[in-house]
Design a protein that fits this description.
By secondary structure, the protein is an alpha/beta fold. It is built from 14 helices and 13 strands. Strands 3-2-1-4-5-6-7 form a 7-stranded parallel β-sheet, with helices on both faces. The chain has a 6-stranded parallel β-sheet with strand order 10-9-8-11-12-13, sandwiched between helices. Helix 11 (318-322) links the parallel strand 12 (310-313) and strand 13 (328-330). The protein is elongated, with a radius of gyration of 22 Å. The chain starts with 12 loop residues before the first helix and ends in a 5-residue tail after the last helix. The relative contact order is 0.12.
Length: 385
């Protein structure tokens, strides 16, 4: 697709006074937001509200929900087909999105799930959250892994600019895809404002609701091999066999066979709604978050904001996100070390109090307002000047 010299996209913004910015809204699904969907939701709605001087179009692959009507400067359109399988991704992005970008005369396309249109000359910004598929394709269904490993190197080179959620991921992207780090911006995730410290009464209510009245550690995340559920459950077994009194509450849906295993004092509560999850987090004795690989690790900052101490992996982006505020960083492959960290957190009130204080301080470094502002600065790099 070629632009003519007189096309509105080629006019400087100073003379047009408005940019038309198309936004990939494929993962904005009412009552089913997860991970990247929450990043999309929190950043896009703030950007639209903060920049009424520009026009935005949300591109959905299913009927848009009224929840995502975000202002007079934003419109929504459903593009066919629903892009939920690898063989449909290319159709949706390369045909339907390309057609809409041309029809609407977009100045830029922003994709918070990292997938781009390969049949447009419109400048594009891709948000890559992590490259776990490059390091461990065995953790994904084979068709998904092939798609990601084939397409994302191409997206990285095609994008005018790339954003990602940690310095770790920025360096990983630059190395894996051979692009300049100066082309990559860091836009951190953040906790919702709903995460806060609980009162004693609220903690007791959470214990009753999620752990049959017992104090508990918590894990939050999809039940997926990279989350190291088997290692966590083995560590918890060792901890209980050594006299630990806390139960374990596991929050998240199963994505892989064998990740949900029945065990004494372990409560699999599935996915929780936006109201229940902060309650479960704040009522816990600590977050035990020991994945093999994370581009960020959102539950860490949610725990910090909730006044909950954190035991986290010493791998990938997690030490960066913790920045010295975790109670302990552990080797995710060492179940005995994880169990020991749980026991120390239970029995050492000084360690616990210090971790809570440091976590609350660290939580102040993250907010969705800061994240949306950082993403907007990245978008500004690709708009016509």
């Amino acid at each position: 697709m070629q632009r003519t010299a007189y096309a509105p996209q080629n006019c400087p913004l100073s003379s047009r006074e408005m940019a038309r910015i198309a936004l990939n809204a494929r993962l904005l699904v009412a009552n089913r937001l997860e991970g990247i969907g929450w990043f999309t939701y929190e950043c896009f709605r703030r950007i639209i509200a903060e920049h009424p001087e520009h026009e935005f179009r949300l591109l959905f692959d299913r009927p848009p929900h009224p929840e995502f009507d975000w202002g007079e400067n934003a419109s929504s359109v459903r593009l066919w087909p629903p892009a939920r399988r690898p063989f449909l991704y290319d159709w949706w992005f390369d045909r339907s999105v390309a057609r809409e970008l041309n029809k609407w005369r977009a100045d830029a396309f922003v994709s918070a799930d990292g997938m781009l249109c390969r049949r447009t000359s419109v400048p594009q910004l891709a948000v890559f959250h992590d490259l776990n598929f490059m390091h461990h394709p065995e953790w994904m269904p084979s068709r998904e892994a092939r798609y990601y490993r084939t397409r994302f190197p191409e997206f990285a080179k095609r994008a005018e600019r790339v954003a990602t959620v940690s310095q770790f991921s920025k360096e990983d992207i630059a190395v894996q895809f051979g692009i300049a780090s100066s082309k990559i911006d860091v836009v951190y995730n953040a906790p919702s404002e709903m995460y806060r410290s609980s009162t004693k009464l609220e903690a007791m209510e959470a214990e009753q609701h999620f752990a049959q009245g017992s104090p508990y550690f918590i894990f939050v995340g999809s039940l997926h091999p990279r989350k190291n559920m088997k290692g966590l459950l083995e560590a918890f077994r060792l901890y209980r066999n050594s006299g630990g009194i806390n139960h374990l509450v596991v929050v998240g849906g199963s994505m892989w066979k064998g990740e949900q295993v029945k065990a004494d004092s372990v409560h699999f509560v599935g996915r929780l709604g936006r109201d229940e999850l902060p309650m479960a987090m704040a009522g816990s004795q600590g977050l035990v978050f020991v994945p093999w690989f994370e581009g960020f690790g959102v539950p860490i900052v949610e725990a910090f904001a909730s006044g909950v101490p954190v035991i986290a992996s010493n791998a990938t982006a997690m030490p960066e996100v913790c920045s010295g505020a975790a109670a302990t960083l552990v080797d995710p492959g060492d179940a005995a070390q994880i169990a020991d960290a749980m026991m120390k957190l239970e029995r050492d009130p000084v360690l616990r109090a210090d971790a809570i204080e440091r976590g609350l301080i660290r939580a102040q470094d993250f907010s969705w307002e800061h994240s949306a502002d950082a993403l907007w600065k990245s978008i500004m790099h690709i708009l016509p000047q």
